[in-house]
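PROTEIN DESIGN WORKSHEET
SECTION A - STRUCTURE
LENGTH: 348
TOKENS:
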């Protein structure tokens, strides 16, 4: 009889332990008044495909998922993604009560046999915890959900600047045994920044299998503050589409962290044809060089009827000091001159 009672109490005990374990889940600080675009790192549970990931996270446009992972535009929806691979998923983020969460999506439809823990830990690969799903949907009993029920999944995110810079916030699920130093090195930031924005004061506060807020440096751009897509942010190794799909912008650290934009060559979403994208005879993304000066037609934003461009100029001439070889040549000539003068005096 005792074993029978214990068996009946086991689910309740496991639920209590899980709630205790996740009660101190890392929250993403978000005090900005506006919304933004962010990324979450989804770890595939089984073999899947890009189209299935788009459907699971309710990603509006397939191209944005490709761009977040720098996949070719020719990638098909049935392109296989193996198990245990990290896929960056773009989400819309909003701030409420100083915490960032995904805005109205994804919405998950409960299947037969689902439980909140299973949905959080396995279907959404621990990007969210089951008490958070329970709270977001006002569920009194986490053990009582029904097939067909639609649940909002509150994914973690942020829109805040970091040290005065706009960044792309990325929810990274911490691997077992990893450290702040390793995470910082992987994503091009530093331990102090990670610790500060995540409220981590000791290494043992870094919890495995829970998301941590990682700020990804974004490329600089010439986008106007009155543009409908301001501020357009893209992290290193990603590309984004903007201006109703007419413009494709990519970020590459090797390009001096400058956002490179060009016509996308695809059909726009809200215009019949794309507006003009030129500046002083140059097409968007093209450059011309005259001596040391280079002029580039850069993307500057868009409104309901036009795409803005800006002619950006920079210098390609080197202003570095003479090389060691030149210095050595100069020293050699000086030494030779001294020898000549000494010889002249000796033979007088």
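SECTION B - SEQUENCE
RESIDUE ASSIGNMENT:
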């Amino acid at each position: 009889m005792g074993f029978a009672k214990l068996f009946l109490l086991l689910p309740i005990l496991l639920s209590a332990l899980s709630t205790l374990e996740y009660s101190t889940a890392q929250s993403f600080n978000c005090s900005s008044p506006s919304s933004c675009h962010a990324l979450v790192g989804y770890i595939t549970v089984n073999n899947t495909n890009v189209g299935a990931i788009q459907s699971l996270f309710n990603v509006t446009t397939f191209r944005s998922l490709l761009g977040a992972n720098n996949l070719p535009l020719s990638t098909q929806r049935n392109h296989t993604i193996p198990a245990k691979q990290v896929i960056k998923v773009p989400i819309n983020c909003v701030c409420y009560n100083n915490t960032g969460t995904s805005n109205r999506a994804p919405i998950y439809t409960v299947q037969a046999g689902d439980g909140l823990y299973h949905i959080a830990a396995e279907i959404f690969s621990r990007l969210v915890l089951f008490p958070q799903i329970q709270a977001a949907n006002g569920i009194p009993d986490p053990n009582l959900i029904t097939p067909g029920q639609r649940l909002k999944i509150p994914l973690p995110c942020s829109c805040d600047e970091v040290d005065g810079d706009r960044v792309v916030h990325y929810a990274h699920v911490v691997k077992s045994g990893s450290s702040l130093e390793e995470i910082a090195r992987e994503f091009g930031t530093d331990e102090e920044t990670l610790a500060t924005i995540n409220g981590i004061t000791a290494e043992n506060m870094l919890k495995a299998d829970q998301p941590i807020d990682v700020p990804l440096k974004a490329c600089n751009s010439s986008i106007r503050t009155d543009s409908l897509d301001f501020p357009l942010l893209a992290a290193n190794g990603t590309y984004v589409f903007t201006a109703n799909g007419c413009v494709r912008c990519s970020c590459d650290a090797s390009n001096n962290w400058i956002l490179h934009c060009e016509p996308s060559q695809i059909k726009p979403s809200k215009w019949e044809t794309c507006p003009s994208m030129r500046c002083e005879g140059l097409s968007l993304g093209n450059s011309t060089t005259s001596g040391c000066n280079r002029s580039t037609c850069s993307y500057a934003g868009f409104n309901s009827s036009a795409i803005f461009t800006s002619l950006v100029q920079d210098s390609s001439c080197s202003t570095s000091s003479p090389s060691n070889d030149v210095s050595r040549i100069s020293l050699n000539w000086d030494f030779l001159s001294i020898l000549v003068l000494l010889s002249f005096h000796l033979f007088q």
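SECTION C - NOTES
The mean pLDDT is 86.
Helices lie at 2-22, 50-56, 62-68, 116-123, 130-136, 180-187, 191-198, 324-346.
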